[in-house]
Write a structure and sequence with these properties.
4-stranded antiparallel β-sheet; 3-stranded mixed β-sheet; 382 residues; alpha+beta
Length: 382
């Protein structure tokens, strides 16, 4: 006779009647839509100098970031806690009359109970029974903060060179380690000749944050290895003066001296056109970083001397050295510029989904968050 009971038990152990279905992309799109609808959000951030509004859902922010939780939930709850203090009239009644004291205590208990019951409904701004908070964010630019909020809601964002440094520092500031990890990994592949000057330029905005130092070091290492290419870029003339001086003063910079002169001249011309200052005056601030004795004599006489911008004494000293190195004394090493004066930025992108790029900066990275691991996917369309 068959043991149907035992057969049933074994069959149930071997058979799995469940399946796992995931639609993370659909969820991300829905959450992105949710964050884009101000009427569905309960937090509005006014970001940057322009106070550009960026909306979000408080519960999502608090769940994804301990910093936002403290900012939006913990601090608000502390502000809401009622404090009951016995007033002078009650103190007088308590001392003067026992019957009145009993009546007063009863009233006190009802009043206190009412405060406790109403406490859960208190909110900074109440709209239709729900609170809406408005906060000002001055630390980050609107594009950067918008990308951060998008990543928090959807787990996905497109990193770009233009906003990379800001997003990386924002991720560190708000405790989003996975996003910070993705930005750090994207730095190495996003630094190119096309993006290096933009990266240096944006670092100026976030120089006070610790992640900036890491990016600057990586960018300067790239500049050292591609000196001539970087110095010849038109965008080199858009860098802050102290950044240009820092680059030109580096011993590790692999660039010929004439390229350094041309880069200094290009930067000085653009600066003078913008500020109406004499070209010679500005160019002279860079001459100490150029070893003119290493520029061939024919270039000194045909390209540099006719400009009338370099003092004759410098050109004559360079020519004398080339003719007889023992006849003159020349400073072989340029003066140093300390990196602490670096406040820069750069170009390149990495994505955690967002904004547009200059067609030249076509590489990007899409970050998707799964549990607690970082995953980046690099794409290049150069």
């Amino acid at each position: 006779m068959l043991d149907l009971a035992n057969m049933g038990d074994g069959y149930e152990d071997d058979f799995d009647d469940t399946t796992m279905f995931e639609n993370k992309s659909g969820l991300a799109e829905d959450m992105k839509f949710l964050a884009s609808m101000p009427e569905l959000c309960d937090v509005t951030f006014l970001v940057g100098d322009t106070r550009e509004p960026v909306c979000a859902v408080r519960a999502v922010l608090a769940a994804r970031s301990r910093v936002f939780k403290k900012m939006l939930v913990t601090n608000v709850m502390k502000k809401r806690e009622p404090t009951y203090k016995e007033n002078k009239f009650r103190a007088f009644i308590k001392r003067s009359s026992e019957p009145l004291l009993g009546m007063q205590n009863t009233h006190h208990q009802h009043q206190k109970k009412g405060l406790q019951n109403s406490n859960s409904h208190l909110s900074p701004i109440t709209e239709g029974g729900q609170q809406h908070q408005t906060l000002i964010i001055e630390e980050f630019e609107p594009d950067v903060f918008r990308q951060l909020i998008e990543y928090i809601h959807t787990g996905c964002v497109t990193l770009q060179p233009r906003t990379l440094l800001g997003v990386m520092n924002a991720a560190d500031y708000y405790g989003l380690d996975e996003l910070k990890c993705a930005c750090s990994g994207f730095i190495q592949c996003c630094i190119t000749v096309d993006t290096v000057c933009a990266l240096l330029a944006t670092a100026e905005r976030y120089i006070q944050y610790k992640c900036t130092k890491f990016l600057i070091q990586k960018v300067l290492e790239f500049v050292d290895d591609h000196g001539n290419e970087v110095l010849n870029l038109g965008s080199f003339a858009t860098l802050p003066q102290h950044v240009v001086r820092l680059i030109m003063a580096r011993d590790e910079l692999k660039a010929d001296e004439f390229s350094k002169f041309q880069a200094a001249l290009m930067w000085s011309k653009k600066y003078c056109d913008t500020n109406g200052i004499g070209l010679r005056e500005i160019l002279n601030t860079f001459l100490e970083y150029i070893q003119f004795h290493m520029i061939p004599a024919n270039i000194l006489m045909q390209e540099i001397h006719p400009l009338g911008l370099v003092p004759h004494s410098i050109i004559m000293t360079a020519l004398a050295y080339q003719a007889d190195p023992t006849s003159v004394t020349i400073k072989i090493s340029p003066l140093k510029v300390k990196p602490r004066s670096f406040g820069m930025s750069g170009h390149r992108t990495s994505s955690v989904q967002s904004s547009s790029l200059d067609p030249r900066y076509s590489s990007n990275t899409t970050l998707s968050s799964t549990n607690s691991t970082c995953s980046t996917e690099n794409r290049s369309s150069h």
